[in-house]
Amino acid sequence: MVGAEKGTEVIPTKNALTIMKFMNVKRPSVATVYSLDTDKIPVVKDRTAIKKAHEAALLLNRLCDNNLDG
Q: CB 10: neighbour CB atoms within 10 A?
């Protein structure tokens, strides 16, 4: 999620979790990635968000591999 300033992620995060609930998603959120202050730092230059997105992708890959093995 992206936002102009800190604090703007709260409502979109709640909305995403609500949507997941209505879609009958049974697992909790695996990871969240935020890029805030996009009015100052473009998302593509937000090293923290990029790192967290990479870590989330690795985690999802491990979870998928574990499900395939089990």
A: 10
Mean pLDDT of 24-44: 86
Alpha helices in 1-70 (DSSP H): 10-22, 47-69
Place of tokens 């609930």: 21
Dihedral sign from CA coordinates of 5, 7, 13, 15: negative
Give the contacts of 33 (CB within 8 A, at least 6 positions apart).
Answer: 1, 49, 52, 53, 56
63: helix, coil or strand?
helix
Look at residue 66 and tell me whether its pLDDT is greater than 90.
no
Give the global pTM.
Answer: 0.71
Taking only Cα atoms into account, the Rg of the chain, rounded to an integer number of angstroms, comes to 14
Structure tokens at 59: 């985690």
